[in-house]
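Write out the bound-state structure for pyridoxal-5'-phosphate.
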Amino acid sequence: MFSKLTTPVLDRSKQIEYITKLMLCRRYSMNFEEPKGPCMKTEIPGPKSKELMKQLDNIYRSIINRPALGVYPGTDWPKRMENILKQVSPKLPKITPMMCGACSNENAIKTAFIAYRSRERNNKDFTDAEKKSSILNQPPGCPDLSILSFKGAFHGRTIATLSCTHSMAIHKLDIPSFSQWPIATFPMYKYPLEDNRRENEKIDEKCLEEVEDLMVKHKRHFPIAGIIIEPIQSEGGDNHASPEFFQNLQKLCKKYGAALIIDEVQTGCGPTGKFWCHEHFNLPYPPDIMTFSKKMQMAGFFHSDEITVKLPSRIFNTWMGDPGKTILLEAIIDVINTQNLLDQVNKSGRRLYDGLQQLQNEFPDMLHSLRGKGTFIAINAKGTDLRNQIIMQLKRNGVQSGSCGTEAIRLRPALIFKEHHADIYLDIMRKVIRELSKERKRKY
Ligand SMILES: Cc1ncc(COP(=O)(O)O)c(C=O)c1O
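---
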């Protein structure tokens, strides 16, 4: 059939359209069983083709024509958002689409501030003094509020998120910050967890005391309107905290009227073996706000009814999301469900974890502090130099792997990563560690 098609001379845009159609034809033709002979059942184009063309038209429109969703949402937009809320919302009733991780956090922070002030003024209208002072960056219109973040955190590189980011100097140098915003200590556990339970509980207690202290101290000047936290501090070194730590943090937020903002930009959409990492923590209530991006393709945040901003134009930008990315997300959610990818992540994660555990036991002078959920796993090398050597040798052996914090090698495979992929990785990792161990023994 395709051999009869000849490529006509077309301009570039027509060529792209022609190739796309040809690829679609091929794709569809591969999925059909070969008929015994020609057989016409309907007029041309038939009802199925018409329906498909309607659907494709919708998809092409979403990709070619980018609507300014804040002002002109398409007629299908509410349904698409409802569909995503229904399928993957962490029990929060509202979604606000955004453009990237930092942009989602930035607007989550603004939402927390607006909710805090609206509550303080009993949802009344703004005063004239507020309106006038706000134009000149002064209180009461621009109030002295703050967001509490944690040492080692990464929440993005925009101005407000950068004040909550504390992983690497290079992100922050030369940029003015909100210097009054408090920074608390994130729990840094001793591993293995089973052997250090009591000590790690004490670390939790100390960190929570520090948070409460900061909340009390800031009550008069720069009250804390929200706490932003990653469920696993990712760029900062794959630092984990216990479910009890998160449960108690939520209690403190409720006690002092601060919004709990959970940043699932890196952990969200399945890599920890649950769709959202914070589902591992059994929180009694959903967080007030949960941000997402990366694996989700589209970015944004889910939020509670109470915190929803009532007036237009306050949490806003031209695009307010991207329908093309939403179509991708719908397909991704479908694949995750139909192929049971969360189960797969747990199985592959177990294989990776067990293999790395064995390696850590064999080479305790090189590797330590294995930790992880699902395939979101990290292991520390003894020192930054050794970590960098391991990553370089992995690369030379064909394995791309990343680093985070000062000593961690982090694993971030795709959701389709299977057990046999884990075996390939573990074999190469073993070879690299064995060679480096020999080299170290020769040197010292
Ligand atoms: C936890 C977390 N929050 C926010 C961001 C910022 O996301 P983006 O790069 O899309 O602005 C990142 C990016 O790595 C991240 O890991």
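---
The pocket of pyridoxal-5'-phosphate is lined by residues 100-102, 105, 154-156, 230, 234-235, 263, 265-266, 293 (CB under 6 Å).
Residues 1-9 have pLDDT under 50 and may be disordered.
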